[in-house]
Amino acid sequence: MTNAPRLLDKLVSMTAIHDVELMEFSLLKTLVEFVRPQELMIIKLDRNGHPCYQLSLKHEQYEIIHDDICMPDEIMAAIELVRRTKQPFNRRLDPLRLLAVWNILQTKSQDVFLVTITANEIGKLDAYMINGLLGVYRNFFAVLHEAQRDQLTGLANRKTFDEVVNKIYFQLPPSTDPVPVERRADSPSRSRGFWVGMADLDNFKRINDSWGHLYGDEVLLLISQLMQGHFRESDYLFRFGGEEFVIIIRAAHEDQAEQAFERFRRAVEEHIFPQIGQVTISIGVAKMDASIFTATLLDHADKALYHAKKNGRNQVCFFEKLLRDGLVEESDIRTGEVELF
User: Locate the GGDEF domain: which residues (predicted)?
Assistant: First the structure.
C-alpha cells in the first residue's frame, strides 16, 4: 500500500527541481521507494528510434550512458510496442522477472520511456501511482521545457546554458597539470572532453536589411533545424540571441570535435535558403577545462570566432590551435583568481 504522506513529500521535492536531468533522478528515486524494482531505467530514443540516453538505477547505483547503448532485445521490442500503441506494457520474462514499460513523454527529437523489472506483479494501486507520478512529471517537464527554450528556434536559451555548463564542470577532472596548454597531451582522464563552439552567421545584418526580418527569422529557424540534424541528441544546442548560437559537444580529441563542427559548417554552406540562396557560418571553438571560469571559456571561443571572421569567414577555428600557433593570447582569468558566478 502506497504511503500517501510520503508520496506527497516526494512530489514536493521533485517539483522543486528546475533541471530535467535532476528531475529524472528524483523520479527514479521516488519510484524505487514504492515499487522496489530489481532494475529501473529511463530510456530515450532519438528521431530514428535508436537508444540515445539511458539513466539506470540498479542496486542503489545510478548510471548514465550516452553512447553505445546495448539494450536487450526483449526490452527494445517492448519499448517499440509502447512507442506505437502509446499503452503501458508488462510481461513476465521468466519466473523471477517481470518487465513493464511506460511512455513518459514525446518531444520533437526524443521519445522517453520508463522501464521497470520487478520480481512480483505490479498491483493496481502501484500502477495507478506510477501513472500519476508520470503525469506530474510530464506536466512539470512541459513547464520547464517552455521556460528553458528560445521561442523562435526551440533551442535552449542563454539561462539554460549557464545551468548546463555548471553541471558539466562537475563532471570534469581537476586540472592540476602545470604543463602549458601547447605542450599538454590528452590523457585518459580527458578522453571524454567537452568542447564549446560559438557560431555566428556571416553577414546576417545584410540579410535582414535586404530581405527583412521575417526572412531573417526563417534563416535562424532553418539554421536551428540544421544544427539539430547534424549534432547528436546528447549534445547541447543553444541560441544566445540574434544570429549567435552556442554548441557543446563531447569528443575525445580535438580532431574529432573539428570533424563535428566542420560537418555542420559545410551543411550550412551547402544548404539553399529560400529566396536568399547561400548562407555561411563562422565557428570559434574552445575546450572546457576545470581550471577556467565560464566567462573565460566563452572569451576563448569568442577569440577563435573573431579570428574566423577576420580571416575570411565561413570556417571553424579552435582556440587551442590558434594558441599553439601564437595567433591568440590566453585569458588571464583562472578559477583560483576571481569568482564571476
Answer: 192-321
